[in-house]
C-alpha cells in the first residue's frame, strides 16, 4: 500500500492572459475554463473537417480509408476523453455566460454527436438521474445489483444499458415529474436518429464511422467508467459517497480529463470546479480515512477496470493509499475490496449520505 504523498494533479494558479485569451474571457463564466475554449476550437477545426471529407464523393478508395483511419484515431485517442469530460464539467457548471445562451448549445448539439453523444441525453441522464439517485436502486446505471469483478456481469450491465437505457431514462424522468428533461432527451434522440437516417442515404459508410460507431464506443466507455467509479460499494452503507465510489490521484488521466479521477468528491459536491478537487481532497482527507474510502495512487479508471476484471486485488491493493492507517495491512485492504464488489440486492429504501 502507499502513503499519501504530493498531489500532482492540476489546480488553478493565476496567469497572464494574452490577447486571444482576453478576447474569449468575456464570454465564459469562469476564467478557469479557458482551456475548454481552445479544446473546442481544436475539435471544430480538426475533427469536423475530417468527418466532412468522409462524406465527399471525390474521396474514394484507399484515400477514403486513410482519412477514415486518421479520423478514428483523432476522435478516439486524441479528443474523446477530453471532450467527454469537458461536456461533463459544463453540464454541472455552464460554460458560457447567461447572455450567450446559444453558445452553451454548441457542445451538446454540434460537437457531441461526432463523439457518439445524442444531444441532451447525457445531461438528462447524468444531472437528472445519476446524481440525484447516487448509484442507488432507482439509478438505471446503478452497479449495485451486479457482481462487479465479473466480466460476464459487466457485459450484462452494458447490454441492458445499451438496449434499454434511453427507454428507462425517459420512464424515470416522467415518474419523477422531470418532464422538461425527458422532453430534451427525447428530442435529442429523435434528431440524432433522423440525422443518421438521412446521412445514410448520402454515404452510409461515412455515417457509420462518423456517428454510429462512436455511439457504440462512447456508451461502452461510459459504462466502463461508471462501472469502475462505482465498483466498490459498501453493502451496509451504499448511499455513502465515500463508500460507493473511488478516487484516482496522480495519473495522466486527471491532466487530460479535468481531474475526473476525483469521483468521491464529485459526488459530495457535484458543482465544484474541476480545478478545486485536489485541494478539497486534501482538506477533507480525514473523512476518507474514517470511511475507509478507496483511493488509488497511479491507477486511472480503465486500469482499475481491467485489473478488476482479472481479479488482481493484490495489484489494486498495492496502489491503494492507506490514509491515517485506516487499514491494518494489505490483506485487510484486499478483503475490503472483495467485499465491496459483491452483488447487492436492494430491497428497501436506502438513505443517500456523504458521511
Automatic annotation (TrEMBL):
**Which one GO biological process term can you cite for this protein?**
lipid metabolic process
Keyword Transcription regulation: yes or no?
no
User: Where does the record place a coiled coil?
Assistant: none
Keywords, in A-Z order: Membrane, Transmembrane, Transmembrane helix
List the Pfam families hit by this protein, alphabetically. FA_desaturase
The Fatty acid desaturase domain, residue ranges? 64-290
TM regions (residue ranges): 36-56, 62-79, 154-170, 190-218
- Signal peptide per UniProt: none
Specify the protein name: Fatty acid desaturase
Q: Which organism is it from?
A: Spirosoma aureum
Amino acid at each position: 500500500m502507499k502513503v499519501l504523498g504530493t498531489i500532482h494533479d492540476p489546480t488553478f494558479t493565476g496567469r497572464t492572459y494574452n490577447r486571444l485569451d482576453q478576447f474569449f474571457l468575456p464570454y465564459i463564466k469562469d476564467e478557469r475554463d479557458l482551456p475548454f475554449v481552445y479544446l473546442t476550437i481544436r475539435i471544430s477545426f480538426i475533427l469536423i473537417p475530417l468527418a466532412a471529407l468522409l462524406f465527399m464523393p471525390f474521396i474514394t478508395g484507399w484515400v477514403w480509408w486513410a482519412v477514415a483511419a486518421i479520423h478514428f484515431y483523432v476522435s478516439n485517442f486524441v479528443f474523446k476523453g477530453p471532450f467527454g469530460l469537458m461536456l461533463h464539467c459544463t453540464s454541472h457548471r455552464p460554460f458560457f455566460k447567461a447572455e450567450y445562451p446559444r453558445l452553451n448549445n454548441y457542445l451538446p448539439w454540434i460537437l457531441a454527436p461526432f463523439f457518439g453523444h445524442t444531444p441532451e441525453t447525457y445531461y438528462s441522464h447524468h444531472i437528472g438521474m445519476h446524481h440525484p439517485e447516487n448509484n442507488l436502486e432507482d439509478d438505471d446505471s446503478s452497479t449495485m445489483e451486479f457482481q462487479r469483478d465479473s466480466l460476464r456481469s459487466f457485459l450484462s450491465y452494458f447490454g441492458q444499458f445499451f438496449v434499454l437505457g434511453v427507454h428507462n431514462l425517459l420512464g424515470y424522468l416522467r415518474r419523477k415529474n422531470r418532464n422538461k428533461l425527458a422532453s430534451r432527451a427525447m428530442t435529442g434522440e429523435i434528431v440524432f436518429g433522423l440525422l443518421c437516417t438521412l446521412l445514410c442515404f448520402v454515404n452510409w459508410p461515412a455515417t457509420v464511422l462518423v456517428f454510429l460507431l462512436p455511439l457504440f464506443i462512447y456508451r461502452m466507455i461510459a459504462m466502463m467508467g461508471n462501472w469502475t467509479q462505482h465498483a466498490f460499494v459498501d453493502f451496509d452503507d451504499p448511499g455513502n459517497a465515500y463508500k460507493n465510489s473511488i478516487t484516482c490521484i496522480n495519473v495522466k488521466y486527471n491532466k487530460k480529463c479535468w481531474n475526473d479521477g476525483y469521483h468521491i468528491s464529485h459526488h459530495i459536491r457535484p458543482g465544484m470546479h474541476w480545478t478545486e478537487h485536489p485541494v478539497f481532497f486534501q482538506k477533507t482527507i480525514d473523512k476518507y480515512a474514517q470511511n475507509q474510502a478507496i483511493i488509488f495512487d497511479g491507477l486511472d479508471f480503465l486500469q482499475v477496470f481491467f485489473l478488476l476484471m482479472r481479479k488482481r486485488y493484490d495489484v489494486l491493493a498495492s496502489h491503494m493509499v492507506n490514509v491515517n492507517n485506516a487499514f491494518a495491512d494489505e490483506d485487510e485492504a484486499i478483503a475490503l475490496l472483495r467485499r465491496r464488489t459483491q452483488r447487492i440486492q436492494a430491497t428497501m429504501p436506502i438513505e443517500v449520505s456523504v458521511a
